[in-house]
Amino acid sequence: MNSPDTTELRSRLIERLRAHEERADFLSNASRLVTDASTLATSARGLEETLESIARFTLPHPGVWSILDLRHGDGPSSPPRRVAVSHPNPSLHGAAKALLEGWPPPRDHHNGSPLVLRTGQTTIIAQLSNEALADIAESREHLAALRALDIGTVMVVPLRVRNETIGSLTFVGLRGGHGFDERDRTLAEQIAAGAALAIDNAVRADEHAKSVAAAETVLANRLAFMSSLSHGLRTPLHAIFGYAELLANGIGGSLTGHQQHDVQRIQANERHLSNLVDSVIAFACWDDGENLLTEDVPVHQALTNARRATESNAAARNIVERVSDPSIGHDIYVRADPTRLDEILLQLVTNAVRFSHPGGEVAVDVRVVGECVWVRVTDAGVGIAEEDLELVFQPFVRGRNAYARAQDGRGLGLAISRKLARSMGGEVSVVSEEGAGSTFTLALPRGRAPRESALLV
């Protein structure tokens, strides 16, 4: 028969073993909960899914459930909004839903979520008395729902991001059950940290998705308008071409040499405008996966065409157009569509002249880099701000400095040029410094000169 001392010692040992088991159990569950919260913070989920996941977080004690409240709007004075209530007992889901839908937390209440949203500090109520429940309740129905949920202990933890409280996570324990302590506070605040970051990331992702969708809608509308407008331009262009052709053929009488020159200029500009209209239509309707048919094209011919087309504008502003070595490019070929190559180089040289200061210089350099050919067009003009370097390739976007805004154009040239280059397996890029000029580089696959092709046959 055991003595009283032996029985007492045995009871104390059993009690200590149970405490150790409970602690080990708590730590294991706590580690899982913190891991789940951290995983949620780094996952790419939408806001609604994230909020539902957070509402299911509980502390590792029997019967604990949770309430999620968020600020409704920006700023510390924004009222709280009850987002989710999650209860583990199916028979009490009705009461929990009533708590969610019927009684949002009052903004100026002296306890619970409103207090935590104001202070940013965790609050623990060891046991919620009947008097406290009555004080919280806004009506008899509300009090009945609170009592049906058998609320005992309550802990409200702030959700904080960048030193701002964006909401609160409330953990509710059963009456007569485990009372929340400092160990629970530490775990709850770790869960809340991951939850707050997850909400912030989800909000940002949703806002970004909405911005992208809005931008795509605006762009689609603009492109549809441009496509319609471009189709409408073709009719008068055909008329201009037809009348110029009649004049050139002497239908209206013989032309002087000066008149013939003028008619040729009309025809050349009509062809350029027609190509531009075609490019706008192609840009509006183009499938990004579509590729142009390419052939071996001499670079020097395209450069010559671009210089001839821009020399009058350059001369009018006393701008010198210079090729690093006039002989360069005669033996260099690229894989390209000849017409599209002309369009890209004309766009790059035209821009260089347009944004150069009077009396400046536009330099063109051609070089072979591995299996690519680089054509670089450099000016010492106004340059582009760093934040605008990629924006200039977006349709309908132009540089934000005053000089760029003052120039003619609709912000399509570089967007079309890059799209054309990419459709030929190439790229258009830019290096620039505001106030110091820009270098635009057209990179295309290297082609073969006719004699190289003949040797391979």
Helix content: 40-55%
> Radius of gyration in whole Å, from Cα?
37 Å
CATH superfamily name of the largest domain?
Answer: GAF domain
- With strands numbered from the N-terminus, the spatial order across the biggest sheet is 2-1-5-4-3
Order of helices and strands: HHEEHHEHHEEHHEHEEHEEHHEEH
Q: Which whole number gives the mean pLDDT? A: 78
Topology-level CATH name of the largest domain: Beta-Lactamase
Number of structural units classed as domains: 3
Query: What is the structural class?
Result: alpha+beta
What's the total helix number? Answer: 13
* CATH architecture label name of the largest domain: 2-Layer Sandwich
Low-pLDDT sequence parts: 453-457
The total of beta strands comes to 12
Q: In whole angstroms, how far apart are the ends?
A: 109 Å
Biggest sheet record: 5 strands, antiparallel
Overall geometry: elongated
Please outline what is shown here.
52% of the residues lie in helices and 18% in strands. It has helices spanning 4-42, 47-55, 93-102, 112-119, 130-136, 140-148, 182-248, 257-285, 299-316, 338-354, 402-406, 413-423, 450-456, and strands at 65-71, 80-86, 123-125, 151-161, 164-174, 295-298, 320-323, 333-336, 361-369, 372-379, 427-433, 437-445.
